[in-house]
Amino acid sequence: MSKLEIANRLRSAREMAGLSQGQAAKRLGMHRPTISEIEAGRRNVKSDELLKLANLYGVEITWITEGKVNEDKIDQSILAAARELSSMKDEDIEALINTIKMIKASENKDGKN
Amino acid sequence: MSKLEIANRLRSAREMAGLSQGQAAKRLGMHRPTISEIEAGRRNVKSDELLKLANLYGVEITWITEGKVNEDKIDQSILAAARELSSMKDEDIEALINTIKMIKASENKDGKN
DNA sequence: ACCAACGGTAAGAATATATTACCGGCGGTA
DNA sequence: TACCGCCGGTAATATATTCTTACCGTTGGT
Fold it and tell me: What's the topology of domain A2-66?
């Protein structure tokens, strides 16, 4: 199903990025047959591979997985937060705080290419 | 690494969606231990699972994988409330906003189990 | 006490992946 | 022609992961 579509879009993205399977594999520390099998739809893509592939190919993950492009950047974010906060339920705030802790805990991570 | 972050966000998303591991597993035709192991960061998430999970939980894939959401706008009413939380850094605030949006989205979803 | 649901995890079977190697095709070039 | 280097596909098998069932302790309700 969407596995094949993902495979196809991964191949398209790689080609649009002007990379061979070998080049992509080398850059990501993967083996070339892995790329080949993935693009053939015979091999699953792990979520962290998906991240690295999308990043290397310069596309958004949602384009790989769903074929959709996400638009804008977060700008007026803080304003947004304020309003949303006011209508949140207590349990949601609790979950939110847990998430904040999580964010804090994983703060020193790298995500860029 | 990001595998653990993904695991944490998957758990957060599930909880915010108000689903137990068993409910989520049943809905997606997965086994409960699979969800458990994924959320513990011991099991890889396949790309199609990622798709289904994000969909079920009512969050965007990019939030799961990268902790980011590209989305719209809101107002400025309760700015003060947000500022209270704003001993955080900008990047954390950004993540916070994304989380809030996610929570709101899940509220209107199929909250019930 | 019971019961039901939750989430964690152990263990062996089943499946998937990693890694190496080999294949044929294709452009260039001598 | 032959040779070369790079490309992408794939076979083989040792290794790793996942599936599946089952059991555990905890919690909340009756």
Answer: 434 Repressor (Amino-terminal Domain) (1.10.260)
